[in-house]
Design brief:
With 159 residues, the protein is of the alpha+beta class. The protein contains four helices and eight strands. The chain has one domain: 3-Layer(aba) Sandwich (Severin).
Length: 159
């Protein structure tokens, strides 16, 4: 089912920057996207330099997502797996909380494919519907699969 929603040029530009710039403090770690006037647009961008000393990109990802009604998020996740060592992968998530209006959830679900065609290089795609889906790094570790030892330098339990 096509929604008629198009992906904005700003999404394409920011996503390319997110994929290519991996070394500097200007590196994009979290990007929030929302549908506005039948166009998927970038609404929040958090760079490495924006992250305070006592927090991490996962906490910012979670905080932004949980303050939105429905949204898409792209998160540059740094994690370590037992069998593969340190990794940096892009994680795409669609946040459609149970409390959101059905019409809004349907609009995001039917527009996801248009966005996925632009997001080439995303390794993990998540569907999140409640706080419990992503309450802790352990929840994210399960969704990343395999034996995840740490995310953003914080140890994961139960691996």
């Amino acid at each position: 089912m096509a929604s008629g929603v198009k992906v904005g040029d700003d999404v394409k530009e920011m996503f390319e920057k997110m994929k290519l710039n991996k070394q500097s403090d200007d590196r994009i770690r979290v990007m929030a996207l929302e549908i506005e006037d039948s166009l998927i647009r970038v609404t929040d961008v958090i760079r490495q330099k924006d992250i305070e000393q006592n927090t991490d990109a996962f906490e910012i990802f979670k905080k932004i997502m949980l303050t939105k009604n429905c949204c898409y998020m792209v998160y540059d996740c740094h994690y370590e797996k037992c069998e593969q060592g340190g990794q940096e992968d892009l994680v795409f998530s669609m946040w459609t909380p149970d409390s959101a209006a059905i019409k809004s959830k349907m609009k995001y679900a039917s527009s996801k494919n248009a966005l996925k065609t632009v997001l080439k290089g995303v390794k993990h795609m998540l569907q999140l519907n409640s706080r419990e889906d992503i309450e802790s790094i352990d929840d994210l570790a399960k969704k990343l699969g395999g034996r995840v030892l740490s995310i953003e330098g914080k140890c994961c339990e139960g691996t």
